[in-house]
């Protein structure tokens, strides 16, 4: 076997690939793909701070990670917030959305810097559809209880929060998520999308198999409809916090595969 090494090295040099270039390409902590930017978009009720475990994992791998803070006041406002962050990227990016953030990246993902989309237990409407339509025909989720105030903004019930949103999180983490909720204008679920980025951009999906916010059949239906590469993981709706490595691994896979297609 060792006699083959000089021949293989000569072939590599003849192809214009230097040993140092190969070593640099595989250096731990440096993504080998051309896509080195990741933009994370949170969903309803939890803000961007929940992405911290995924952020830490990806930055350790060498990615430049940005986190959008959605105002959750309208689809248009959330899309604009996402576009502002995408405008700041220095090259192609993987755009990631959790839950309602999936609707946001579906609309915002047509941005020319988006190389691929990752849906993390996320909604994925089509152009001309509303987010609310995605629930039609699927089982209800009685443990995920939203309380809507007179102003039309919704919070998850404090009493039901851990069971419905983050049953696999530590009590302290679930309590922090519960007490730092960002309410969403419930009217956003009735807004029709004008774009569906997944029709032109490659997509990946992480499905939390213990998600109490969505019927499993609904998550699978949406992911299959957009032709996403699907990863399943045993986790709650707070999968971004309780299974960050699985989420980061999927984003890393998306960056590598989308990167090859942008070379």
Labels describing this entry:
263 residues; alpha/beta; 6-stranded parallel sheet; 9 strands; 16% strand; globular; disordered N terminus
Mean pLDDT: 90
Separation of the first and last Cα atoms: 33 Å
Strand content: 15-25%
Are there runs of 5+ residues with pLDDT below 50, and where? 1-33
The counted number of beta strands is 9
Outline: globular
Q: C-alpha Rg, in Å? A: 20 Å
Summed up, the helix count is 10
What share of residues is helical? 25-40%
Please characterize this protein's 3D structure.
- It is a single chain.
- The protein has 263 residues and is an alpha/beta fold.
- 37% of the residues lie in helices and 16% in strands.
- It has ten helices and nine strands.
- Helix 3 (52-60) crosses helix 10 (244-262).
- The longest helix has 19 residues, at 244-262.
- The relative contact order is 0.17.
- Mean pLDDT is 90; it is low at 1-33.
